[in-house]
User: What shape does this take?
Amino acid sequence: MRFPEGFTWGTATSAYQIEGGHDADGKGPSIWDAFCQVPGRVAEGDTGQLACDHYHRFREDVALMASLGLKAYRFSISWPRVMPTGRLEKGSIKREGIRFYSDLIDALLEHGIEPWVTLYHWDLPLALQTERDGWLNPEIADDFEAYARLCFEEFGDRVKHWITFNEPWVVTILGYGQGVFAPGRESNVEPYIAGHHILRSHAKAVQCYRSEFEHQGGKIGITNNCDWREPLTDRPEDHEAAERALLFYLGWFADPVFKTGDYPEVMRERVGDRLPEFTDEERRSLLGSSDFFGLNHYTTMFAAGASKDGAEQSVYGNGGISEDQEVDLSVDPEWELTEFKWAVVPWGCRKLLKWIADRYGSPAIYITENGCAMDDVVLPDGTVDDQDRLSFYRGYLEACHQAIGDGVDLRGYFAWSLMDNFEWASGYKFRFGLVHVDRQTLKRTPKSSALWYSDVVRANELQGEAPSRCLG
Ligand code: GBH
Assistant: This one.
């Protein structure tokens, strides 16, 4: 599997999932610190208080990445670590928090690893939630802009790839629709409001970057998540259902940025006045506000036109708000499932990449997350021979390779995740890491999949010198 020269190979993590140090050096609490304290919200009462203690062990982690030959690393900045109240006010900037990220970035660059920085991977400063209603408040766009500006000022001399938001769909549907993620709200109105202000905040941060930090010469974009939706049958209503499901999933956040400056028409029709309106100026600032198309992709489901009963049974289905989309989702019982019960369907990845290229005019796409939770067995010597994860990666990388052959402009791939970490509401039981982290000792050990991935990356990096090397 020879990938184009210059292809970006990396792994990804997020702050709350690995850092720990939840109150170290003056860090403020986030909505995830609070959510974890609510009994029953996170499996086994797990929290991210310690996580992988990356806050104290980052040098070891960077050295590990370097030893695996990794060339890029996507991580997120914890907003309340650098701005404990979330707002720019007197004394509200924490130099210690800034120093942590600055040291991390320097360590990466010393090892020839390119930092890709996400500004928001779900850990909103708690005060913005309790005092100001979080993403429901239109004014949050100003707070996000101020926070983004601080990051550009402090790190932009060294960081050349920025991602404003990780997965608005998860923030809105799981956080404000189903209530299974922080802040734990359940509604069929709030997801659309929160999504609206996330998009406005994204546009403001990008405008700030492009107007004030152009001299830094970096790229900025947004990462959305989308699972593929395959029509269940050849019936036209199933084809329409699959398309509609993709528009409610990805089109919701991608059309405003990459296509029209506004939401898909089908959402307007079905969501009606629960879907907020952008001003003309907002539409203008949204359209074209991403230098690349960030995509997190994990799985595939069949879509069928919903029977009325189905829609009523499941008000907040796992594809969004199902009463609005009227799509019935299912999986093929033959498909292999990961530990998370997500189906392993590499061809869905290939089809999704093509769908994005066709709908959005062949943007430069980066897969900023792809990976799986598997039932790892730790051997007596502490190693993990995770052949099922390895074949997951082989399958999905093959699909990416084929997509490039189909003409898709795929520029990079980040495995989720560098190491086993705090898997949100599922706690530590589910492990997505290439590197095993022992929960007692926090010792890091690369799994078989990590060594394989490392080989793929190295051989691709060597392509010029050793053209005969063949992988896969
Ligand atoms: C990512 O989101 C997150 O960015 C990351 O922090 C997290 O650790 C990682 O996932 C693993 O959970 O139930 O079959 O309908 C993933 C977004 C949205 C992907 C829901 C799977 C549901 C599949 N996910 N989707 S299914």
Q: What stands out?
A: Residues 14, 166-167, 170, 225, 227, 296, 298-299, 301, 318, 342, 369, 416, 423, 432 surround GBH (CB under 6 Å). The first helix runs from residue 15 to 18. The longest strand covers residues 114-120.
